Amino acid sequence: MAISIIATGDTLITQRLPYRDESLIQLKKIFEDKDIRFTNFEFLVHDFEVSPAAVSGGTWVAARPPVIQDLKWLGFNLFACATNHALDWGHEGLQKTMMHLDRSECIYAGIGNNMAEACQPKYVDTPEGRVALISVSSTGRDWHIAGEQRPDVMGRPGINMLRFKAVHYLPKHEIDMLKSIVNKTDVNARRMQLEREGFVKPEEGFAIGNIRFEVGDTGTVTTYHQKDADRIVKAIQEAKRQADVVLVSHHVHEFKGPEKDISADFARDFARLCIDSGAHAYLGHGPHILRGFEVYQHRPIFYSLGDFIIQNDSVERQPAEFYDLYDLGPEQTPSDAFDARSGNGTKGLAANQKVFESVMAAFNVEDDRITCVELIPITLGFHKKRSRKGRPELASREDGERILKNLQQLSDEYQTKIEIKDGRGYLYL
Q1: Which of 78, 122, 199, 339 is the most buried (most CB within 10 A)?
Q2: Average pLDDT score, the chain
Q3: Helices 66-74 & 22-32 angle (0-180, nearest 10)
């Protein structure tokens, strides 16, 4: 028998879902027909009784605990939680979120009180078999990564992180020119002092702070952190022995080139590593837009599934640091700050229609194989007021075909063929 799965991208929810909304009821019917209903849980849950971190993933994202029940009502039964927002409200905010998820009997992966918990595969048992999820994020601060336990020191709450490094290549004469310019100032004095005192490892080539340059053909290459990758591969291999289907969720904003719709080198290499290690599908998200899809070893790689819910401009409260970004004082409200950030809806995520258009990926796993993925386009109310913007509904046939044609173009570089029929897309493996 087949295990049926539907996967969505980022859910950044800050408002309650109206259960009588016909558009949501249509989606609910689609979800209820599947064994596994996945989304990326890109927010924290608490009652604002915790202190914010000094920095955030862009917005200090939080919602009240009842939204968990709303997502369960809609049908979701598997959540990935490793994201760049997981520590927006510090370790206490993360632990409050885990507490509320546990109380709601949710199955979630990617966060924990230490690295062993954060990297652990989590399982859903269905009538047709067992499904495992490993959740990973590459976007985040260096202090977001969960800490390993030691015999003499506790672990640290955080996320299951796949770090990466970037090397920028330039001809030798240009690097020599760069060194000459840098050495005329103190811009790199701290880096050099830390190297001399042994607090930072010297880099090959030339480093300015954490930015690394080497001689070579002009361009930038990113590679994943091998120790992190080894840890995640071990988790995939564990899940492969304990489950019938293995899913890897990867939250990654990083991109290659001037536009963010092309995945960074390390993300592509990691996605293929996951499949080679036994994953049945790689579920990417993070940039808040679609990225191309690839068929690798007869299994799907979704480099980004875009957004499912995006309510980034209606968080109930923000800390003082958020207002400081826009030179606003304590008398201002969250709406004042969101308006300042978006130029009253004229710039940023709020003004990008692609942020509010996406697809859901539905597929069956039978006898360890996936033969076809159905791509179901959705729109998120781009032209609606903030109070209703960001909530999903099935796309019209016209909008759906336009979204799928854009996805076809994004997937061309992987030689992926997506067939469009009656407003739906079909990816044959």
Answers
A1: 78
A2: 96
A3: 70
